[in-house]
Amino acid sequence: MKYKTKVQTTGGTLSTSIPKVIRDILEIEKGDSVQWEVDLETRTVTMKKLE
Question: Which of 16, 24, 26, 32 is the least crowded, having the fewest Cβ atoms under 10 Å away?
């Protein structure tokens, strides 16, 4: 699956939203923690919910 979101400025940092369908699939709720993994070689980012 691929989704497109816009990056916005929030309090001096850049942020983006998590599309509802992804929130529902991963059961992400406000206050949950997520982990961002960046692969500098391929310039890809992976995000996952922390349990």
Answer: 24
**Closest residue by Cα to residue 36 from 46, 22, 44, 51:** 46
Residue given tokens 């980012």 in the structure block: 45
* pLDDT for residue 51: 85
* pLDDT value of position 50: 95
Q: What domains sit in the chain, N to C, each tagged with a CATH number?
A: 8-49 (2.10.260)
pLDDT at 15: 94
